[in-house]
């Protein structure tokens, strides 16, 4: 029986693909895997039993995945599974930022006991006149699963859409409408934008990437949206831009002590991915990735190990080696197997970044001392006997 510790609120119908042979445990100690969302697990005492962590969602800045790789723990995320939910909310807020919807509604509510409200509303409605997004310029920073959908939706709204993403994947480039103009320079993207929206992961080169300089380049009275992470946009710079009127309105998904007190800032409680559809599809994808890894050693959508697929084991045994991406690892593994006269049926090796993964099926089970020899290879992070 494999055990899964669930951290965070994972919707029930997202768990339907957990098959037989798995049980949910309340104790992380001794668990095989962790299924989670946004809880920050930096600094968590990670039990040695944990083999993988599946993040039902996109961002993995809450997980020390590079560090965990060296402990042989595979971290998965669910690319794209919640991107439509974020897109829909961002587009809705874009509309709110163009018309004073909230102000108008608040005015009406404030007049709920006024018998002349209907006539007064007619007289007052001028105060809530907005502008149309059609024909306005929007800059989209990051054109991945969310950003590409937001950019395309803005094209559909008749906006002039510009995108900045120096690491744009081929898949996302294919998905982008031709009307989205790529810009290779962030400052150039920001210049004279009426709207700016950020959709990049939180990492070293994205923290604070929108600062005073970039905000000053926007058209005066611009609307800015942050549905990525709280510190992609420098909060001090945003506060100053709001105070000066350079930014007319700021929408953010992050209720930081500062954002909650900034003028003309509308804060949502990290609800970008908060739809029943997104929650279920993230959970299902995370569960599938986790179960395939625990049962078969296959790796899909890991952020710290390469993709690796060998289907189900056809031999007597399947061994997976998680190790550093350095020379002569395969040489050392195969030398040990040759010494043991082990017949390898199938073998695969993949690498990405600092990590590599070698998996093989053998005709017979390997003796425990052979497994120990594999484990003692320098730079070997973990050896799993899957079957
Ligand atoms: N508010 C919420 O509930 C949600 C927030 N997010 C946040 O949005 C981020 C993006 O999500 P997805 O689009 O699904 O991820 P993704 O990985 O599909 O897209 C991220 C894009 O950012 C680009 N990028 C990376 N570094 C960049 C840089 N320095 N400058 C410009 N572009 C850069 C990448 O090339 C990629 O195309 C997530 O990492 C997460 O932090 C995602 C989903 C829900
Ligand atoms: O997928 C992401 O990156 C998100 O920010 C969504 O977070 P959540 O799973 O809703 O806590």
Automatic annotation (TrEMBL):
Tell me the superkingdom of the source: Bacteria
Entry EC no(s)? 1.1.1.399, 1.1.1.95
**PROSITE patterns hit by this protein:** ACT (PS51671), D_2_HYDROXYACID_DH_1 (PS00065)
Q: Which UniProt keywords apply?
A: NAD, Oxidoreductase
Sorted alphabetically, which Gene3D superfamilies does this protein's record hold?
Answer: 3.30.70.260, NAD(P)-binding Rossmann-like Domain
Pfam families per record:
2-Hacid_dh (PF00389), 2-Hacid_dh_C (PF02826)
- What is the reaction catalyzed? (R)-2-hydroxyglutarate + NAD(+) = 2-oxoglutarate + NADH + H(+); (2R)-3-phosphoglycerate + NAD(+) = 3-phosphooxypyruvate + NADH + H(+)
- Molecular functions per Gene Ontology: NAD binding; phosphoglycerate dehydrogenase activity
Domain (ACT) spans 318-387
Which pathway does UniProt place it in?
Answer: Amino-acid biosynthesis; L-serine biosynthesis; L-serine from 3-phospho-D-glycerate: step 1/3
What's this chain's function? Catalyzes the reversible oxidation of 3-phospho-D-glycerate to 3-phosphonooxypyruvate, the first step of the phosphorylated L-serine biosynthesis pathway. Also catalyzes the reversible oxidation of 2-hydroxyglutarate to 2-oxoglutarate.
Question: Under what name is this protein listed?
Answer: D-3-phosphoglycerate dehydrogenase
